[in-house]
Amino acid sequence: MADPTILTCAVTGNITTLEQTPYLPVTPEQIAKAGLEAIRAGAAIIHVHVRHSDGRPSMELKHYREVVERLRAAEEDVVINLTTGPGQRFIPSIDNPSVAAPGTTLIRPEPRVTHVEALRPELCSLDFNTMYSGSSVVINTPANLAIMAERIQAAGVRPEIEVFDSGDIQLVNDMVRQGKLDTPMFCQIVLGVRYGAIATPETLAYLKSLLPSGSNWGGCGVGRWEFPMLAQAWLLGGHVRVGLEDNIFLEKGVLAQSNTQLVEKAVRIVRELGGKVATPGEAREILGLKKQAPRPE
């Protein structure tokens, strides 16, 4: 088993909405506060997306900067993991599928990592999936991923590789062989996304077996699969993740009133299985991370 187990809290994401749950943190102050409360409850890593004040997903550097500065100024030790996910979605028009419909966010890879280069967190996510998701197509081409990986690693940041199916891991392994990704790496296996890998013990064990040798890895499930896959990931020796990005329910029909409640339940499960959760310092040691100063504005 992973001992101790690193618990990541993904506090807001970019898909969960205020219409789904009024407890979603939205402003930089709310996101940072939710992250610090999750740390006090037992999380070691805070995975950060940012929003506009009305809840819409944001890619603005000023929003990331405020969250990061608040986290870094706090008394609590925290490992910060910034997303690079926004900017990858294409919605085809009904009349002409080659033309982007409203809601498309697909952009070049460089702007997707600008905030990472400026703020230099210890970790940032790097999604390897190309798949149908909701009403849009998520597109992460090998060429774009290579550009993002190069810039992330040049900034001294460790990419947390997110994979959603077996083909994603084939691409990861190809980029490792080509020298485009440093190893050992930290991989997050995401299960239960519709049209991605299904959330079963067999699927998780299979995907884990495909990862580059020596990888640190975690597994997480979305929606009602969050806690079953947390337990399964721990049993297979992986790290774990919860948060309102992935799931808004504490149990069937009961909304989680905070990320903290989800973290507390995750900690309880890990401990009742016989494990213990890592501190931020222990997570840093396990993953070989180092704190960095942001680049001057």
Structure description:
The chain has 297 residues and is an alpha/beta fold. It has one domain (7-287): Aldolase class I (TIM Barrel, Alpha-Beta Barrel). It has 9 helices and 15 strands. The chain is globular. The termini are far apart.
Tell how many strands the DSSP assignment holds: 15
Identify the CATH class: Alpha Beta
Order of helices and strands: EHEEEHEEHEEEHEHEHEHEEEHH
CATH topology: TIM Barrel
- The tally of structural domains comes to 1
Shape: globular
Our count of helices gives 9
Going by CATH, what is the homologous superfamily?
Aldolase class I
Task: Give average pLDDT, whole number.
Answer: 96
Summarize the structure.
The protein has 297 residues and is of the alpha/beta class.
How are the SSEs placed, and which strands pair?
Layout: E1 7-10, H1 28-41, E2 45-48, E3 50-51, E4 57-58, H2 61-73, E5 79-82, E6 89-90, H3 114-119, E7 123-127, E8 131-133, E9 136-138, H4 142-154, E10 158-163, H5 166-177, E11 186-191, H6 201-210, E12 216-221, H7 226-235, E13 239-242, E14 249-251, E15 254-255, H8 259-272, H9 280-287
Parallel strand pairs: 1-2, 1-13, 2-5, 5-7, 7-10, 10-11, 11-12, 12-13
Antiparallel strand pairs: 3-4, 6-9, 8-9, 14-15
Helix pairs in contact: 1-2, 1-8
